[in-house]
């Protein structure tokens, strides 16, 4: 679709800032951290220029930034914040608090290594370590996808009343320039109606939040949270379809690239999906029946869709740019769990590659696929550089 | 000070505080003075218990119970969202304990002050982590017994009033439940000021201090009259006004009524007296200037 947008040369972070501007949040509490900083800077610039009407709160920590997001959201406004790595770690307590209060906050997390030792490189362990905090999690592979996903994330979060995290990787996406179609404000406004939350902090309503509850009430709160999560997959698909109708761009919650008739499928997330797509095309050229499964929505995990995509496929190779000590790659674990019980499920190879930001070019991925042919799969993830 | 106390009935009886609790008394006068048009933020503390377990509430205003570190940031988030919606007339008050203020919540408090957030922050200071069974906080006074300083706290109480005044916020005040007219006057005054307002209220904890159920108000008066806890106001970090100060009553009158000081020798009581005297002399200078 060529109408209703401006084509711009943007890095991933500036693309996110444009997405945020289009979503019209009213309160934006932020704290800078590399490599997220350009998001905060761009939003500050928009605000100074008067093209974005948000109240920017320059907080003293990510913990406080998230605390302010939660209350601002409960008081009835749309909010945004961004973080990375240690910042996300510092928020951990408040992430649970946000989902517990069912506040539809949208946050961009730029995936970066966590200390110690210090590093600034692409690695998804920061956000994957938050997978059980009750946040919706999206992993994006390009600046365009990040922009589009910010708007979709609001659409979903506000429907199911859950906070949503949109991820892209340090430098590969956050700082690399791409041409991006920035939709016109009318398109965003058509897509995203004004925020009208279901319960709020307001003397006229008189409701409170956060008080001590008994066991039964806590149990029911957790159940409700679970039900919202379950609903989120369907709602995310709906959000994507609607966005595609308006802009011509859709991503699904998983993407299957050349998977029809594939005998080997590479499964991965984030920017690695872009590289793996290259590798798949190369391998296909050399006659190998290879496909790509990109998992875009990681929480809630789209178990049924993944099972359908991988049923009857003999071999799956999982590439994880992350590592959970004691278990291995996160996606590797998730896929094994998701596919358990499939009668004709694949054998699964879990490869830890790109952990800590090491470079993984298409040739390397093609090499890993060939290597797998020579190896028996093992239950644990294997280090592959 | 002649000040008529006008109460709107926001705070209700039947809450969960210990009988005679001065924190509950403070809650009553704070919320009743601020009135219906208020949203309160309360972190984990005795205040959280007093606010009531869900679905009950001792207060007829929305109360948001936040995490221990985040009272000021949470209150600021509410106020910013209200402003964005044109509902600026609603008061936002954070009511935290000394642990949530002097210690774990200090970072967010100090930064909210630096940003001059338009909130009222009230610290109910009972000089210890009373809600977890009376452990030391950085507000615990020198030589006071707590379960984590069984030999007496070896260091001085952090002077949060002066630290907050040094942020040059529009309004800082100290108050106590022994002088309710003064307390209400300060809450009332804070209500009408814009920007960051901070009030630290000394609230004797009957259990944690080891005083009788009916003695709270008396003890807190003695804290003022002995010069241990002077009541004063500071506007914009420079304009000091003293409301109630030392009347030269020996500090032993205050100390010997509390079990948390019963391990002290007479030399130690003398030492405390000397520190209080010196502090009071230094302090008076601010009002004569
Ligand atoms: S422990 Fe102390 S502060 Fe807490 S409710 Fe009891 S008397 Fe009040």
Architecture overview:
The complex is a heterodimer of chains A (385) and B (289). With 385 residues, chain A is of the alpha/beta class. Chain A is 42% helix and 19% strand. Chain A has a six-stranded mixed β-sheet, with helices on both faces. Chain A has a five-stranded mixed β-sheet with strand order 4-5-7-6-12, with helices on both faces. In chain A, strands 1-8 form a two-stranded antiparallel ribbon. In chain A, α9 links the parallel β10 (264-268) and β11 (290-295). With 289 residues, chain B is an alpha/beta fold. Chain B is globular, with a radius of gyration of 18 Å. The model of chain B has no long low-confidence stretch (mean pLDDT 96). Chain A: GO terms for molecular function: oxidoreductase activity. Chain A: It holds the Pfam family PFOR_II. Chain A: This is 2-oxoacid:ferredoxin oxidoreductase, alpha subunit. Chain A: It comes from Desulfoscipio gibsoniae DSM 7213.
Count the helices of chain B. How many?
11
Reading the helices and strands of chain A in chain order gives: EHEHEHEHEHEHEEHHEEHEEHEHEHE
Largest interface: pair, residues per side: A-B, 41 and 43 residues
What's the shape of chain B?
globular
Order of helices and strands of chain B: HEHEHEHHEHEHEHHEEHH
As a percent range, the share of helical residues of chain A equals: 40-55%
Main structural class of chain B: alpha/beta
Feature tags:
heterodimer, A: 385 residues, alpha/beta, Rossmann fold, 2 domains, six-stranded mixed β-sheet, 12 helices, 15 strands, B: 289 residues, 37% helix, globular, binds iron/sulfur cluster, oxidoreductase activity (chain A)
Nutshell version of this structure?
Chain A is of the alpha/beta class.
Layout of helices and strands, plus pairs?
The complex is a heterodimer of chains A (385) and B (289).
Chain A (H helix, E strand, L loop, with lengths): L4 E7 H12 L3 E4 L6 H13 L5 E4 L3 H13 L5 E5 H16 L5 E6 L13 H4 L7 E4 L3 H18 L3 E6 L7 E7 L1 H7 L23 H33 L6 E4 L6 E5 L2 H15 L4 E6 L1 E3 L3 H8 L4 E6 L9 H10 L7 E6 L9 H13 L7 E2 L2
Parallel strand pairs in A: 2-3, 4-5, 5-7, 6-7, 10-11, 10-13, 13-14, 14-15
Antiparallel strand pairs in A: 1-8, 6-12, 9-11
Helix pairs in contact in A: 1-2, 1-6, 3-4, 6-8, 9-12
Chain B lengths: L21 H13 L3 E5 L3 H6 L11 E3 L5 H14 L6 E7 L1 H5 L2 H9 L5 E6 L34 H6 L5 E6 L3 H12 L5 E6 L3 H4 L6 H10 L5 E5 L3 E6 L6 H5 L10 H23 L1
Parallel strand pairs in B: 1-2, 1-3, 3-4, 4-6, 5-6
Antiparallel strand pairs in B: 5-7, 7-8
Helix pairs in contact in B: 1-7, 3-5
């Amino acid at each position: 679709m060529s109408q209703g947008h401006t084509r711009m040369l943007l890095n991933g972070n500036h693309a996110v800032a444009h997405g945020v501007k289009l979503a019209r949040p009213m309160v934006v509490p932020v704290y800078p951290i590399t490599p997220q900083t350009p998001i905060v800077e761009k939003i500050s610039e928009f605000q100074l220029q008067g093209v974005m009407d948000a109240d920017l709160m320059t907080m003293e920590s990510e913990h406080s930034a998230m605390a302010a997001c939660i209350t601002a959201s409960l008081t009835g406004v749309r909010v945004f914040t961004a973080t990375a790595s240690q910042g996300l770690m510092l928020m951990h307590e408040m992430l649970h608090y946000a989902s517990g209060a069912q506040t539809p906050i949208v946050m961009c997390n730029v995936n970066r290594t966590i200390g110690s030792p210090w590093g600034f490189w692409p690695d998804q362990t920061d956000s994957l370590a938050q997978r059980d905090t009750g946040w919706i999690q999206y992993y994006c592979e390009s600046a365009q996808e990040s922009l589009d996903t910010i708007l979709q994330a609001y659409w979903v979060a506000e429907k199911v009343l859950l906070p949503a995290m949109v991820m892209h990787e340090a430098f590969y996406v956050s700082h690399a320039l791409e041409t991006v179609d920035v939709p016109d404000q009318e398109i965003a406004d058509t897509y995203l109606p004004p925020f009208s939350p279901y319960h709020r902090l307001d003397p006229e309503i008189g409701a409170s939040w956060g008080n001590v509850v008994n066991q039964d009430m806590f149990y029911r709160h957790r159940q409700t949270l679970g039900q919202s999560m379950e609903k989120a997959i369907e709602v995310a698909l709906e959000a994507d379809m609607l966005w595609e109708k308006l802009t011509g761009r859709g991503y699904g919650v998983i993407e299957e690239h050349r998977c029809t008739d594939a005998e080997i499928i590479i499964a991965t997330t984030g920017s690695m999906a872009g590289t793996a797509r290259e590798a798949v095309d190369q391998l296909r050229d050399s006659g190998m029946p290879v496909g790509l499964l990109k998992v875009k929505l990681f929480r809630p995990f789209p178990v049924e869709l993944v099972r359908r995509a991988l049923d009857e496929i003999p071999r799956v190779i999982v590439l994880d740019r992350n590592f959970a000590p004691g278990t291995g790659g996160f996606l590797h674990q998730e896929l094994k769990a998701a596919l358990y019980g499939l009668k004709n499920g694949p054998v699964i190879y879990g490869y830890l590659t790109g952990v800590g930001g090491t470079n993984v070019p298409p040739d390397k991925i093609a090499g890993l696929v060939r290597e797998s042919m020579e190896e028996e799969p093992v239950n644990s993830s294997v280090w592959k550089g | 000070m002649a000040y008529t106390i006008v109460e709107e009935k926001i705070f209700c009886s039947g809450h969960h505080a210990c009988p005679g609790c001065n924190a509950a008394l403070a809650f009553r006068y704070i919320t009743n003075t601020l009135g219906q048009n208020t949203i309160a933020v309360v972190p984990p503390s005795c205040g959280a218990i007093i606010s009531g377990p869900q679905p009950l509430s001792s207060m007829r205003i929305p109360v948001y119970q936040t995490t221990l570190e985040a009272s000021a940031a949470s209150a600021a988030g509410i106020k910013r969202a209200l402003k964005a919606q044109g509902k600026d007339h609603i008061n936002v008050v954070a009511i935290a304990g000394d642990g949530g203020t002097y210690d774990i919540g200090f970072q967010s408090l100090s930064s909210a002050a630096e940003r001059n957030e338009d909130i009222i922050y009230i610290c109910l200071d009972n000089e210890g982590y009373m809600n977890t069974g009376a452990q030391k906080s950085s507000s615990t006074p020198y030589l006071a017994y707590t379960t984590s300083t069984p030999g007496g706290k070896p260091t001085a109480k952090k002077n949060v009033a002066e630290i907050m005044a040094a942020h040059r916020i529009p309004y800082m005040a100290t108050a106590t439940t022994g002088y309710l007219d003064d307390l209400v006057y300060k809450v009332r005054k804070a209500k009408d000021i814009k920007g960051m307002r901070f009030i630290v209220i000394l609230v004797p904890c009957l259990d944690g201090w080891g005083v009788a159920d009916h003695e709270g108000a008396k003890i807190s008066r003695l804290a003022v009259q002995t010069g241990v806890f002077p009541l004063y106001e500071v506007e914009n970090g420079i304009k000091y006004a003293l409301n109630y100060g030392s009347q030269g009553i020996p500090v032993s009158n205050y100390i010997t009524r509390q079990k948390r000081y019963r391990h002290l020798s007479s030399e130690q009581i003398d030492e405390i007296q000397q520190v209080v005297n010196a502090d009071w002399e230094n302090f008076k200078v601010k009002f004569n200037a």
